[in-house]
Every structure is written in structure tokens, then in C-alpha cells.
Amino acid sequence: MLIRMPAPTEHLELPHPRRLIWQSAWSMAESVGLPFGTYVAVTDVVSPDAGLLAGTAVVWLLIALRKIVTGSVTSLLMISALVLTVQTAVAVSTGFLWMFELQFPLGNLAMCVMFARTAPTPRPLVAQLAAEVVALKQPHPGLHRFFQGATWLWAGLFVALTLGLAVMMVTEPFKLFMLLSSLVTIGLTVVGAGICVLWFFAVIRRLGLRLHFTAG
After folding, report:
1. What predicted TM-score, i.e. pTM, was given to this entire model?
2. d(C-alpha 65, C-alpha 144), whole Å
3. Domain of 203?
4. DSSP readout, 77-138?
């Protein structure tokens, strides 16, 4: 009698947790922390327009340095550059207050276009971010549909943000608009991230995959 052995469990490889935390923290610091920190510091000392210009200059400087040192630029850094460039171009093009507010919905619209453009391709943006931010190696072929769906999800969230901020821009006073735009953006980002995490674990469970951390 032949005994059928169970198929070996496939693994998704991730770096050691210490390295994973460091890599994720550095990716977020260079893409978000440094440009945003520069924006806040210069805005406090000079003006919001000067802060946007300084933050945009920092992110493009980081892109140039990365290109020289490593020969490549991460998707997260390019996203940061795109959004900051759009926001800066709109905000400093005129002195009107509504133009300053317009940078926020337009920035989210640019994000929507970037995610939607890559969603149906062999390299959806969420897959690229997973490889760059958490170093997800050798992704299973069955995960491709998840990455495409997650990329469409983020495109939809940025559409919702664009429409919501556009409505608030014309219905709310400036200070309330700034507060609400921050709260809504953070809220939808947390919701989107939570959905993607739960969705990801449901998919790898269905595919019979296990996460494996490398040594060191």
C-alpha cells in the first residue's frame, strides 16, 4: 500500500525581525520623515510655501543620492516626490488660500492615478512596496491577484480622499478643513492598512503558506 506523504509547506521569506524593523523604519524615514520634518521645521521658521519647497528639495536630493549610491530608487520615495511636487507646484503658484487647500485633494488624486496605473500590470504598486519596505522575497504566484486587488483598493481609497477633501475645501473654514483633512487621511490610511493586513493573512492561509524569518 502506498502512503501519500503530505506536500511540504511553502514559505514566504522575510528578513529577521530586527532587520525588518530597521529596513521598514529607514524606508519610512527617508520617504516620509525627512521631507515632512523639513517641511514642518521650515514652515515654523519661514512660511508654509517655503516649507513645501524645502521638503520637495529634500526628497529630490534623496532620490539623486540613492540613484548615485545604489543605482535605484524605491517606489515609496518616488510616491513622496510625486505628491510633494504636485502640492508645491499648486500651493506656491498663487497666493490664493483656495489654491493652498487644493494641494491636498490633488496630491491624493496623483496617488490614485499612480496606484491605478500599476494595478492591472505584472508589477502592481503594492507588490513593489512589499518588496521594498518589508523585503518580501519569492512571493507565491497565487499572491499576484492579492497584490493587484490591494493596489485597486488603495486607488479607491485615494479617490474617496480626493472627493472628500474637495467637498470639505468648499464647505469648511480653513482651520477646520486642515484639521479634518488630517483626521480623515490618517483614518482612511489606518483602515486601508488594516484591511490589507487581514486580507493578506487570509490569502496566505488559503494558499497554505507560512511566513519564514531568515536568521541574523
Report:
1. 0.77
2. 31
3. 11-213
4. HHHHHHHHHHHHHHHTS---HHHHHHHHHHHHHHHHHHHHHHTTSSS-HHHHHHHHHS--BS
For residue 190, what is its C-alpha cell?
Answer: 489606518
Q: In this structure, is residue 5 part of a structural domain?
A: no
Q: Is residue 6 part of a domain?
A: no
In the chain, the number of structural domains is 1
From first to last of its 216 residues, the chain has per-residue pLDDT tens of: 444 444 445 677 776 677 777 777 777 778 778 888 888 888 888 887 788 889 889 999 999 998 888 888 888 888 888 888 887 887 777 666 677 778 788 888 988 999 999 999 988 999 888 888 777 766 778 889 999 999 999 999 999 999 999 999 889 887 788 788 888 888 898 899 999 989 998 998 888 888 777 765
Residue with cell 479617490: 159
Q: What is the CA radius of gyration of the chain?
A: 20
User: 126 and 150 in contact (C-beta within 8 Å)?
Assistant: yes
Q: Are 113 and 170 a contacting pair, CB within 8 Å?
A: no
Assess if residue 100 is contained within a domain.
yes
Give domain status of residue 4, yes or no: no
